[in-house]
Amino acid sequence: MALLLKKNNTLSTKRPSYHQQETPLLEGREGNSPQEHWLLIDVGNTFTKFAHATAGGFFLAEQKPTSSLSRTILEEIISSTSLQRVIMASVLPEVTSWITHFFREKRIPLLCPDATLDLGIRMLYPSSSSLGADRLANIIATHYFYGFPAIVVAFGTAITLDVLDEEGAYLGGVIAPGLNMAAEALHQKTALLPQTHPTPIEYALGQNTQEAIHAGILLGARGLLREVLSRVRKENLHHKKPLLLATGGDAELVAHGEELFDYLDPTLTLQGLRKIGTLCPPDYSTQHHVEAS
User: Fold this and answer.
1) What is the sign, positive or negative, of the torsion defined by CA atoms of 266, 269, 271, 272?
2) Distances from the Cα of 229 to the Cα of 149, 153, 269, angstroms
3) pTM of the entire structure?
4) How far apart, in whole angstroms, are the C-alpha atoms of residue 203 and residue 18?
5) Which domain does 154 fall in, by range?
6) What is the CATH number of the domain that holds 54?
7) Which of 31, 138, 198, 234 lies at a C-alpha separation of 20 to 30 Å from 167?
8) pLDDT tens-digit profile of 213-228?
9) Residues 178-208 pLDDT 10s
10) Strands 263-264 and 243-247
């Protein structure tokens, strides 16, 4: 069973209320030793996840607030082992820059994947060079571990929905404000609406302002998913039903009490980064990285 991250930054193997995919052992391309020790890093706007891994699987994972990241934390994370590679997806250029500097000083190869890599997936997306590495990793994990057609939804600071067609090609996606971003915007752009963090709802109609905000945000997210699903089935998938996967910090909240998703997988991005590592020979780490400024 894949490792699940709990909110207190510890590990759990508890199966959620949705199916949790068993991740198979992987064989990398020639040049990737199954014993190589890798560090996977998923830098998000709010949290950053780390996983020590080999080509065959994770053996340690943790998360930390992105705002707390420092050289000291990185030193602690890598102190107990000898790393051969680092594979990172980051949505924050400044963090990407100093982490790149850090591993360059350590002479540890760093791969920041992008859609120009040969990852075995057709990209029917004209602006694929602008596709974020986190979304790319989610697409790769979905393609290789779950199948297609599929829609993978990441509930983070933003909500992203990405679509694979019946042949596994990437078609494009949707980006919308995340739950907490929506709640913060309501507070900042109005005089009287309070700051609040969405929690599960029992009924559509709130009995006070806070409940009304929570209902609006959660029902809006669920409605977004259902509308995208309806349109994509009609416009792109010849009315076929895709597999629905969810990941990200708010995935369980949106799924609570609903039968929306086939799978919830909180480690999907890390699984995608690991799979990218098996698909890219070690010299890619020197060819594809973000230049530190």
Assistant:
1) positive
2) 12, 11, 22
3) 0.85
4) 22
5) 128-269
6) 3.30.420.40
7) 31
8) 999 999 999 999 999 9
9) 999 999 999 999 999 999 999 999 999 999 9
10) parallel
